[in-house]
Design brief:
Layout (H helix, E strand, L loop, with lengths): L6 E5 L3 H13 L5 E5 L2 H10 L4 E4 L8 H11 L5 E5 L4 H9 L4 E4 L6 H34 L3 E6 L4 E4 L1 H7 L3 H4 L14 H14 L1 E9 L5 E12 L5 E10 L1 H15 L9 H17 L1 H8 L2 E9 L2 H7 L2 H16 L7 E6 L2 E9 L2 H14 L4 E3 L2 E3 L3 E8 L6 H17 L5 E3 L2 H23 L2 E10 L5 E12 L3 E3 L1 H11 L2 H21 L6 E6 L1 H5 L3 H12 L6 E6 H6 L1 H13 L3 E7 L6 H6 L4 E4 L1 H4 L6 H17 L2 E4 L5 H9 L4 E2 L8 E2 H8 L2
Parallel strand pairs: 1-2, 1-3, 3-4, 4-5, 16-17, 19-21, 21-22, 22-23, 23-24, 24-25, 25-26
Antiparallel strand pairs: 6-7, 6-10, 8-9, 9-10, 11-13, 11-16, 12-13, 14-15, 18-19, 18-26, 18-27, 19-20
Helix pairs in contact: 2-3, 12-13, 14-16, 16-17, 18-20
Bound molecules: ligand LFPHGCPZ.
The site of ligand LFPHGCPZ has 21 residues, from strand 19, helix 17 and strand 23.
EC number: 3.1.4.52
Catalytic activity: 3',3'-c-di-GMP + H2O = 5'-phosphoguanylyl(3'->5')guanosine + H(+)
InterPro entries: Biofilm_reg_signaling, CheY-like_superfamily, Diguanyl_cyclase/Pdiesterase, EAL_dom, EAL_sf, GGDEF_dom, Nucleotide_cyclase, PAC
Amino acid sequence: MNPADLNILVIEDSDADFHLLERHLRRGGLQARLHRARDAAELKAALETQAWDLILTDYTLPGIDIRTRLQWIFEHLPEVPVIMVSGTVGEETAVDLLKAGLEDFVNKDNLAWLLPAIDRALKRVALRRRQHRDEARLRLWDTVFEHAAEGIFITDSEGHILQVNRAFTEILGYAPEEIIGQTPRLWKSGRHDRSFYQNLWDSLKRTGHWQGEIWNRRKDGDLVVECLTISAVRDPGGATTHYVAMFSDISRLKRTEEELAYLAYHDVLTGLPNRALLNARLNARLDHALEHALEHARRHRTQLALLLLDLDRFKHVNDSFSHATGDTLLQQVAARLRNCVRQDDTVARLGGDEFVFLLENLHEPENAALVADKVIAALKRPFQIGGHTIPVSASLGISMFPRDGEDAATLLRNADAAMYQAKSEGAGSYAFYTREMTERAREHILLESALRRALEAGELQLHFQPQVDMDDGRPIGCEVLARWHHPELGTVSPARFIPLAEETGLILELGAWVLENACRLAKGWLDRGLDFGRIAVNVSGCQIRHRVICDQVAQALARSGLPPSRLELEVTEGFIMEKAEDAIGILEALRDQGITLAIDDFGTGYSSLVYLKRLPIHCLKIDQSFVRDLPEDREDAAICQAVIALGQALGLETLAEGVETEAQRRFLLQHGCRLGQGYLFSRPLPAEAFEKWLTR
Ligand SMILES: Nc1nc2c(ncn2[C@@H]2O[C@H](COP(=O)(O)O[C@H]3[C@@H](O)[C@H](n4cnc5c(=O)[nH]c(N)nc54)O[C@@H]3COP(=O)(O)O)[C@@H](O)[C@H]2O)c(=O)[nH]1
């Protein structure tokens, strides 16, 4: 404080002593304002009217003793320093008065001590005032810390907990004595990955601050969501000395938020997603699918299907029973529908008796039809509600992405149109958006189940197409071709049922059956002295991919007793080249069993010369598509010549498929292809007819 601003009260009844004191202070350079109190009345008035920075008092004053005077002073100004300037006080009294609050004592005979005493007293008072202020601030902080609604904890720079408040204990359940010295890892929830904590520490180190939502675990194991703020406390040199963390428990808020979000996106009655969630999911999938459409379609060949379901005559349930019964029925229907699809498919209720299925990653539209069939079957069992047995059926309309629309609204509209089509065809059925798709899907499903029965029912037969030396017509072998005679559908072409069998996996069983029967019949011919050459059996890529072909061949040869040299396997060029590395080992194992191998449909599958050289094959079958327009088509002629030349260069036989005319035969022979097969020599024949052909 500037000494000129000091207000000093001098309690002195003697004029001479006052002036002496005044002169001494002025001479010492103290330009303070001095005010004098000569008796008790003036002292009382001075204390009541003004605040003093310092009081100098004589020992004696008329009308009031020194102790009462000190009492008065401290009652009015508890912090003011009082220095006694007197000549009449003994040492003992001085000590007593110092104990009573007197700041200092200066003898009138030695006024030289006065100014230093004033200086000391003022400094001590300033220090005391600062301490009082700090103490008050600490008390305030303690109250705030202890009574804050937010949990607070303070750690050292290593993260060891130094202090926690009451709210911390209330929120996390740990008492201070359990937690002091531990680190916050103690209450980690395990819900965040390493990168979450990495980011938190990065931010603290970079900015000294982190704020965010965090999942932790209470002492009792329950999860808690906190809104947490952490601040680093740094020393003047910038080194972190502490971390202060404050958090509030927002678990309830989160739950409420989640409940609201759930209500906004779910149907209250059934708990299924509602129209809003369906649209959100559908749009997200469509956006993604459209973005990656080409790439995705090429790589995965998958589609999305939207199935719109409407319960047949649901209004009748509400009218005949009650709305409560109708509600319960919808709940039970919803539960059955959910069980018809995979976990990652969506079943939503649009409202009323309308439900929607969003099926993802479908390889065929027929898979959507299978789900529709499953749904119709699931609803067939009548519902039992309140003592009533209620039969239910539903009609479903199916639209496919991207074929029937590229946005949610179009797909829904088209599924709706298909659903009305299904309704018009009778309750409990489904329809695709296009009639042609519906028919294809139905036929596919029908054929699939019929094919499963065909083997046991003896509906499959083997036909044999002769293979000849085109120069002299001598038989050199025959190709085995499966035939299916369905009692109602008639003859079903292998071009239709072989791909279906491959898709459903039935080809494994069918392929084994063909091998067994072909070998058995061939052995019978051999036993009866009929020389057919080699018997060529078509092998599907599935049989190789599933690694069953070696066992199937070994078993068929062992059971029939046919010499392996009489058996040839035909594998398509497309499959071999797609899976060349995998196929080589298996084909080698087959060759090692003593059988021969031919590449079927050669010329259609982009053969790699490197693989051709490595594969253990002995024959290339020129695909009939290159033979058909011989000899006129110059490109086909060039391809046939190239394949023949390639076969010769690699030391392989070449056999032309689909030879129908004399001109084709001549052309092929002329260019070095001696072996052929086709209607010119014979159509595929049933076993008995083939035997006759051999002996013709
Ligand atoms: N994995 C298996 N595939 C099989 C089996 N049986 C048949 N198939 C495959 O089905 C496809 C269609 O066969 P198919 O209808 O029998 O047709 C074959 C011949 O009948 C036909 N052919 C023969 N000569 C001529 C001709 O001069 N003209 C003409 N238009 N068609 C003719 O060609 C088919 C033989 O083709 P390929 O097998 O490529 O030599 C067919 O892909 C069969 O392979 C089976 O048991 N397993």
